[in-house]
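Try it yourself: sequence plus guanosine-5',3'-tetraphosphate, in.
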Amino acid sequence: MDTQITNLLEKQVKRRRTFAIISHPDAGKTTLTEKLLLYGGAIHLAGAVRAKGTQRNTTSDWMEIEKQRGISISTSVLQFEYNGYVINLLDTPGHKDFSEDTYRTLMAADAAVMLIDGAKGVEPQTRKLFEVCRMRGIPIFTFINKMDRPSREPLDLLEDLEKVLGIRSCPMTWPIGSGDRFRGVYDRQSKEIMFFHADASAAKGKKLEAKMTGVDDPEFLKSLAGTRNDEYEAKELYDQFKSELELLEMAGDDFDWDRVLRGELTPVFFGSAANNFGVERFLNRFIELAPMPAPRLDSHKTVNAEVDPITPKFTAFVFKIQANMDPSHRDRVAFIRVCSGKFERNMMVKHARLDKDIKLAMPVSFFGQERVVVEEAWPGDVIGLVDTSSTLRIGDTLTAIKGLEYSGVPSFSPEHFAGVIILDPMKRKQLQKGLEQLSEEGVVQIYRQRGFGDKDPVLGAVGALQFEVLQHRLRTEYAVEVRIEKLPYAHARWVVGENLDPDFFERREDSRCLLDRDDLPVLLFRSDWALRWATENYKNLQFLTTAPRKKT
Ligand code: G4P
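Structure, out:
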């Protein structure tokens, strides 16, 4: 029986790829997601991503709700099959702000696709998300987008990856020109050229067939002349392409799968998502190179240090909570990532933090507004559990293995802070409930002032727009009107170490000492300078950007 289930698990695990796309707003994440779904034949799901063109009518309700709530009612995961693989594309929130939710999603991914706008290079949000991937040590694949627009020199872009992010790169494809001189990309492995045709039908979502040839094909130089038939331009593009290629062969990093898996080397692809160009090639190489669901660390180390996904017993952890997904039901959904074993509806598992058995009776997956009951799932998959009684928290472990607990999902250091002022003091209870639930979702973090109990908390957020989302959701979901007063702090650090004197930091003009929800001390600093001063003068203390794990 065990061998049978192990064989089944092995088969299912091997064909799964679970990843997230990280990017700065406007780099083209929604567009790329739509194209990827298209290859999976899941275009009917595209409404879950964004209403586009003719699809707009069918998805307008969805858009309206999303707009009104001011947040993305996230589908959390888009699952599709492609070439025998099951792809779980973890959806990070769609709106332009940055939230903790985005960070947490990366905790459930086995790989990340870093999407970069070729005209802009590495941008701030990409950098922040990259840091989280690096902390987790997951492999990162890079797609440089919008090559149909004038872009920066490709070698410059690679230098950006190294200088700003500190990661070496290995181009798998290489572009020939950009903007209106964009002729296509060269596949360094197959040594084929894919010619670019700006094709209106591609933007509508049809698969684009590319014409292939080789660099030494006499037709190659000729074809670089483009629609203007400019021989001079063709020669220029050809010479530049050849010299760049030579430079890459001589001085570039060789492809090394182990370094990719360790997150030290990123394979780079070029293309144009809007034109569906370079996407198919990218997807094919990605599924071949990206890792299958990886073993996860058991923090109690009761079983093994790591739990292999093909372990027959089910384990999973909660990486995201979303309250009031359906405002008419006031429900709460906990999203879990399956780490090992097979998930079956109605199975009984141990809730590790509460040391209590629970039945997983209401597993669902979401396609836009639609809910589908999930009967079974495998390692790497993500499912939503309807959790009306609020028994699940982010980081919780659900397990059929006795004594196992995963190391949880850290809280990330906010960069924006505010106080919250209630306009109708009679509604204090609702406010408290709203703050509690919305902070569990990661909309904001809540810090208590020492000696104040739950009164007048300080709110922290990784993106400033989160305060507006909070205000909006308190009004619409909890009927509480509040005013948000921004506070002049720029950094928060969890502090670990002997002899922390909270009063000292409280007395200083440029810092505060608060408590997080687990009563761990958190210092707020007004400026980079104040933070630096503290770290240099208190070498006995550790200043952490993620919350240390709570002792249980
Ligand atoms: P995001 O989710 O990362 O924020 O980006 P999104 O896909 O919404 O893309 C942002 C803008 O960039 C969109 O234009 C989109 O069409 C465009 N874009 C994406 N990929 C490419 C590409 O390969 N080439 C070019 N030229 N543009 C690209 P928009 O004007 O904001 O929206 P829309 O009117 O096109 O829908």
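One thing you can check immediately is this: Residues 2-289 form a domain with the Rossmann fold fold (CATH 3.40.50.300).
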